Every structure is written in structure tokens, then in C-alpha cells.
Amino acid sequence: MLEAFVSTSSTCTNNCRTVVCFIAGILTYQNNFEAAASEIARRYRDAKILVIFPYGMANGIEGSSLIRLLSRQLTQAGYDMARQQSRRVISTAEIIREHAMDAKHLILIAHSAGGVIAYRTGLYLEQNYDFQGVQVFTVGCPKFYLKDISFNDRFTYITGQNRDRITQIGAWRKPGSRVYRGRPGREIHMEFNPIHQGWRFHASYFLKSAWTDSNQVLNNNSEALISKIYEIYPDP
Fold first, then answer.
1. What are the Cα distances from residue 62, in Å, to 22, 39, 55, 68, 104?
2. Tens of pLDDT along 119-149?
3. What pairing do the DSSP bridges indicate for beta strands 155-160 and 218-220?
């Protein structure tokens, strides 16, 4: 079941110039984006920050119930990857539309399978509700077939230096197709905390996970990620 809330880190609540929306993938907990939302608040004035869980939250679910949730969410994510539009895309778009109708700037930032939802939602809002200039950033997201359209110019695909199985899934171009021949406008490779491996690495992109690089400079994942997003699309 889709769940959503307005982050307490928001720097605006009504008639906001900017709306930033975090969109979660599967097996995600409510506090996953807290550190990143705080970084957004430091950089964007008059910004409402939404957090949307298209596949629901994993809070309070354990044992066999967690396995069943994962199975259901994987099926739903596979469905969304294979189709240009789904109930979750439309529902996500309606929530964002409610909060961002009068905003000048809309930024969608998504993790994992949420990246598919974010891209399709941004496109849906532009095609059906006359939103303009939607920016889409996905992190640790599977690839999915893209049409060669101008919307892709505002799609940024971010990966890390360690192997992430999720980013190995799928492809941008469909073999033999004259329609699905697109690519993201930007594909960016970033450094994240190298101590994390496997699924832990995939889960850590948005966390305040501190580490020291080869130059003995202290970094943390959420700050590095939002700094890069702000560099690409600064507060207008």
C-alpha cells in the first residue's frame, strides 16, 4: 500500500516555490531519507519535502511477514518496470500534484525501484498536468527501456563505486527497437562509503554514513549525494 508524508525538514509548507520528493524502492523504512532531507533543507529555500513509498514501508514487519512483503514488492516492481504506466505511477503523480501544483520547481529523487516510478511519474505529470521542467534523479536504480525523448535531458542516473546488483538489472535500449533507443541525460558515478558491500552498499546511499577518503577528507553519503544534486540543479 502506497504511503506518503511531508518531511519535518521542509523549509516551507504552503505556496512553496520548490517541491522535492523522495521516492522509495522496496523494503524501505520510514527514516531512510531523514539525513538526505536535512541536506535538502540546508540548500533549498522555500522547499516542501515529500517522502513517498509506492510499495509501502517495512516498519514493524519481521520474520515470515517480511519475506511475504518482499515477494509482493518484487512482483510489483517487476510489473512497473515492464509498463509505461501503472496504478502506483498514477497514485504517486496525484500525491505530488496535490502538493506541487503551484510550485515553480519540482525535483524527484528516488532510490532503487523507486527510480522507475520517479521517471514515469515525472513524465506523466508533464504530459497530463502541464508540469514543466521536472528534474529526476535516481540512485542505485535498475535500468529500464527508455524512449529517445527530450524529457531524458532532465534525468540523472547515479551509481556508486562498489558493485550494486540492482544497477546491473535491465537496459536502456531494447534490442531491435526503433522506439526504445534513449539514455539518461546524465550518468554519474560517485564515491560512497566503501566499507559497505553488497546489499548494505545499496541501502546506504541516502544515509549519514561517514567515511574518510584517500585525501583524509571526511565525507558522508547523504551530504555527498545531495551536494551533487544541488550542483546539477541549484536553488534557482
1. 24, 30, 16, 10, 41
2. 999 999 999 999 999 999 999 999 999 999 9
3. unpaired
pTM above 0.85, yes or no: yes
User: Grid coordinates standing for 102?
Assistant: 503551484
The secondary element (H helix, E strand) that includes residue 73 is helix 63-82
Beta strand extents in 80-232 (DSSP E only): 105-111, 135-139, 155-160, 186-190, 210-212, 218-220
Query: Which tens digits make up the pLDDT trace of 33-74?
Result: 999 999 999 999 999 999 999 999 999 999 999 999 999 999
| 3-class DSSP state of 165 | helix
Amino acid identity of 133? G
Spatial separation of the C-alpha atoms in residues 159 and 2, rounded to whole Å:
26
Residue 4 has phi, psi (to 5 degrees) of -155, 155
First to last CA, the chain: 35
**CB 56 within 8 Å of CB 69:** yes
Give the gyration radius of the chain's Cα atoms.
17
Q: How far apart are CA 214 and CA 188, in angstroms?
A: 20
Question: How far is C-alpha 2 from the geometric centre of its chain's CA atoms?
Answer: 15
Cα distances (Å, whole numbers) of residue 189 to 73, 138, 159? 27, 12, 5
Three-class secondary structure of residue 26 per DSSP? coil
Cell reading at 210: 561517514
